[in-house]
Amino acid sequence: MRISWITEAPTPATVQYGTSPGKYEFSADGTTSSYSYLTYDSGEIHDTVIGPLKPNSLYYYRCGVDSTREFSFKTPPAQFPVKFAVVGDLGQTGWTQSTLRHIAESNYDMLLLPGDLSYADLNQPLWDSFGRLVEPLASQRPWMVTQGNHEIEKIPLIHSEPFTAYNARWRMPFEQSGSGSNLFYSFDVAGVHVIMLGSYTDFDPNSAQFKWLVADLRKIDRNKTPWTVVLIHAPWYNSNTAHQGEKESIDMKASMEGLLYRARVDVVFAGHVHAYERFTRVYNGKTDNCGPVHITIGDGGNREGLASKYINPKPNISIFREASFGHGQLAVVNATHALWTWHRNDDDAAVSSDSVWLRSLSSDTACKVKT
User: Fold this and answer.
1) CA dihedral 277, 279, 283, 286 (to 10 degrees)
2) Separation CA 119–CA 90 (nearest Å)
3) pTM above the 0.70 mark?
4) What are the Calcineurin-like phosphoesterase domain coordinates in residue numbering (predicted)?
5) Which of 42, 52, 275, 295 is the one with CA 20 to 30 A from 61?
6) Is 243 left (phi over 0), alpha (psi -120 to 50) or beta?
């Protein structure tokens, strides 16, 4: 597990941890970095990897030396069942706070976020306030994220390096999956192979991301990970009037959809559109029982509000769509079945507004992986 935290003053990048409150049998040291953006200088960004850890276990930890604040987290299980909370386009509004309250009540094992985190949009102190906002949850469970357009923060001639704050603050385990970039990577958890793709870095067939994806899909062992889930930011399927015709959707789909289809990816989660939409299993614009289910879950609560207008009539491949803030839960029960539920903020957390049982394509004899 990687522990990341930020301090104003220099302090050792040391994490002390153990399995009982106040008792830290183990200690690990990491690295410290910082970044500058225009007139803003970040605090000390500490990154420390701890372990090995036991699965499905509670650990107590403190960051730095002689810190009085104690945190705790639970490691994910090593085998099914496993539950993911899924939410995109979070921001930091009252709607965001409602979303986080609902997620906190869901007893999830890991959070997956398909881009657009803080909505700092060049105003760097908003990255700090976002960190404080999500700390109660992100300190207790692993949060795995990919980037959205609001993470780019590039200013021509003035600050030409994109993703400066995102890469410095939200370092993901990309090296472990053979990726050369924090903008795309993969990992295994409890029988699920999760692939995080970058909608805002190169994705054409000559790109590093494309070549990495080909190699990563080839490595999947369906006996070990019967489920494969992909996250992008800009959706490849979308019947909302918002964000139509963008190259990050159209060109990335044209480049990579065939790869995911042939690898029998089960689900593709996207954000960007501030609404919820679930498609049937689909490939090349048509219903295909061996294609992934595409789900847009960009309704986390950002300040831009909801995308409330849809294209009518509703396409046949779109099963459920609604412009409400909320989050999703993917409960993978075993190697063959998973329950997807979407939860509106307006409803009690225990009530799902949309739900569907999914069967893994690895268990469908009609959907053999194509090489």
Assistant:
1) -110
2) 8
3) yes
4) 83-276
5) 42
6) left
pLDDT tens by residue, 297-310: 999 999 999 999 99
The 8-class DSSP code of residue 336 comes to S
Round to whole Å and give the CA distance between 162 and 148: 12
Asked if 270 contacts 298 with a C-beta cutoff of 8 angstroms, the reply is yes
Here the tokens at position 222 are 């369906």
- How are beta strands 227-231 and 192-196 bridged, if at all? parallel
In 190-336, DSSP assigns E strands to 192-196, 227-231, 267-270, 276-283, 286-287, 293-297, 318-322, 326-332
* Residue where the block lists tokens 């705790």: 72
Cα–Cα dist 277/354, whole Å = 10
Residues with catalytic annotation? 243
∠ CA 132-128-112, nearest 5°, is 65
131-144: pLDDT as tens digits: 999 999 999 999 99
Phi/psi region, residue 22 (left: phi>0; alpha: psi -120 to 50; beta: rest), is: left
Q: How far apart are the C-alpha atoms of 184 and 259, rounded to whole Å?
A: 15
What average pLDDT is seen over the chain? 96
Q: At 155, which amino acid appears? A: I
Bridge partner residues of 251 (DSSP): none
- For residue 366 the two structure tokens come to 């009609």
